[in-house]
Amino acid sequence: MVKITGIEFRNPTILASGIMGTTGASLVRMANSGAGAVVTKSIGPEPKIGHPNPSMVKLDCGFLNAMGLPNPSYADFDNEIKIAKEGADVPVIASIFGGNAEEFVRVAEGLADSKPDAFELNVSCPHAEGYGATIGTDSCMVEAITAAVCDAVDAPVWVKLTPNVTDIKSIGKAAENGGAAAVVAINTLRGMAIDINSGYPILGNRFGGLSGTAVKPVAIKCVYDLYEALDIPVIGVGGVSSWEDAVEMIMAGASAVQVGSAVHEGVEVFADIATGIEQFLQDNGYPGVEDITGLAHEVI
Amino acid sequence: MRPINSKITKIVEETPSIRTFRFDTSLDDAQPGQFVMVWVRGVDEVPMGCSFKNGITVQKVGDATSRLFEMKEGDSVGLRGPFGKGFTLPAKDENILIIAGGVGVAPLGPLADEAISLGAKITTILGARTASELVFEKRFSEAGEVHLTTDDGSAGTCGFVTTVLADVDVSVYDRICVCGPEIMMFNVLKMLEEKGAHERAEFSLHRYFKCAIGVCGACCMDHEGLRVCKDGPVLNGSLLLDSEFGNYKRSSSSQRVKV
Ligand SMILES: Cc1cc2nc3c(=O)[nH]c(=O)nc-3n(C[C@H](O)[C@H](O)[C@H](O)COP(=O)(O)OP(=O)(O)OC[C@H]3O[C@@H](n4cnc5c(N)ncnc54)[C@H](O)[C@@H]3O)c2cc1C
Ligand SMILES: Cc1cc2nc3c(=O)[nH]c(=O)nc-3n(C[C@H](O)[C@H](O)[C@H](O)COP(=O)(O)O)c2cc1C
Ligand code: FES
User: Fold this and answer.
1) Mind listing the pLDDT tens digit for each residue in B173-207?
2) What range does the domain containing B254 cover?
3) I need a surface site. Which of A61, A83, B11, B125 has the fewest CB within 10 A?
4) How buried is residue A134: exposed, middle or buried, by Cβ count under 10 Å (0-12/13-18/19+)?
5) Using CA atoms, how far apart are residues B223 and A296, in angstroms rounded to an integer?
6) The whole model's pTM is what?
7) Tens of pLDDT along A121-163?
8) Are residues B57 and B139 in the same domain?
């Protein structure tokens, strides 16, 4: 059992936003396959069809995606959260986005009826113009938006950060100052792939976000830095596909880990990681996850 | 995987609105029922069943398919795949019923070829709106008996594939493999359920695909959260009873829309 921002999780693995999170039924499936909590696809103020395909490709080192935040809008999505809440016996976190504080508040209030256990603010998507990282690279906006959503809802507010900044700590601080209960790091790293036969960028949006194994060292460093700078919990995400990756992320300072791209290998990944962490703690005589959280800071 | 640069080697006009495109790329490990993502550069990337190891059979419906129809032999597209799960391959001497409607023939053509080479017996119910829209008639005839149906009666039985199916004794078939418009497949499923044969039936489904590799969740079906791109596109009939199948699907913005 892990407790973060007042919410209890049966294990420290969480389904990352944008992965199998578009319908209530798929969120339930991920919970049933072992995730300790699930985060929805990022939901916005209006229905959005996203970028044209190709919107995701597997490369040798990881994945590139530019989905473009496709979503049915909060008005159509509260029912999916209700389905997820009824069917899954794990916390359901609503990921939301908007272009400014008013839109974020409108979406959060619009979903409040369906009672998500927490809100995760997406101020970090690297390829949606006017949304995501456009906001998340500006600490004043991050603080203002976090504060506005915290004012509007009772549930804890997490803020998901972009690694595409010079100093992620200052953005993390802004979220903390705005009242965030936790930060989530990291969203994808801006990236691109080009088809050498034609010269065309492969993604429909031309560029997108890199995820998977390739980004793990970047994520570990971001989590490490944020753990040092902040008083609120850090939730680690980026390139976790095994229990060893998860333990590494936790030792960098994460209280829990989110898993995204690794779902490609199989939905059993959550159960595998959770059991592996549990075994590791037992084998090494650690009472709980919190006993290794940030260990890498203490040993030196 | 990156899209494989694939040159169009041959274009066959199957009907006024359906063409087969053959490529210089052969996906030799493609199983009948698996699909490829076809990247029409600068327009879109769309899923297409493999109608041959090196070919797809396409109905012109919108932007990407219209652009594809403007292409000539020698032009190229990007291909990724094969993806997804195909039809269960028959054992020797098994009796297989194929039910194909419209461009739904695409994944069933290779199934017929493969089944014959494995020593199974094939019967096909092949339907289309009108005689000129029938596809792969010769291919299925070479594999076994074919029952034709057209909506307007211009070839074979006048009616739908279900008109023919109503008179078929399905108990003799080890498996029934279906692809076509969802309403057609839904009516087939209901009929097979009444005949107690839905567990022996497999359906190749269409949903909106974004990632096509089982990650994004765009193609998920209620109520089990099945991913049509990875757990399918071929799904057993028993998984489809009590699902959204035949009722609604999701649009590109994941809003529910009626089938
Ligand atoms: C597994 C699978 C196999 C398919 N096999 C064939 C085949 O063998 N032959 C064939 O002609 N068609 C096949 N289709 C349907 C084909 O993918 C669509 O007709 C095609 O995408 C239309 O693209 P467009 O740009 O011309 O049309 P658009 O104008 O973009 O859209 C027209 C309609 O096509 C469908 N569509 C568009 N984009 C996608 C997408 N990314 N994923 C799924 N559906 C989409 C939607 O229903 C949409 O309403 C298959 C679909 C799936 C899911
Ligand atoms: C297909 C895809 C869609 C994503 N959509 C979202 C999204 O809607 N909101 C969000 O905050 N992050 C989104 N992400 C980012 C992931 O949640 C995660 O931060 C990132 O992929 C790194 O983790 P990973 O290496 O485990 O995949 C998406 C990632 C992928 C691969
Ligand atoms: S299209 Fe992304 S999971 Fe199927």
Assistant:
1) 999 999 999 999 999 999 999 999 999 999 999 99
2) 211-258
3) A61
4) middle
5) 43
6) 0.97
7) 999 988 888 888 888 999 999 999 999 999 999 999 999 999 9
8) no
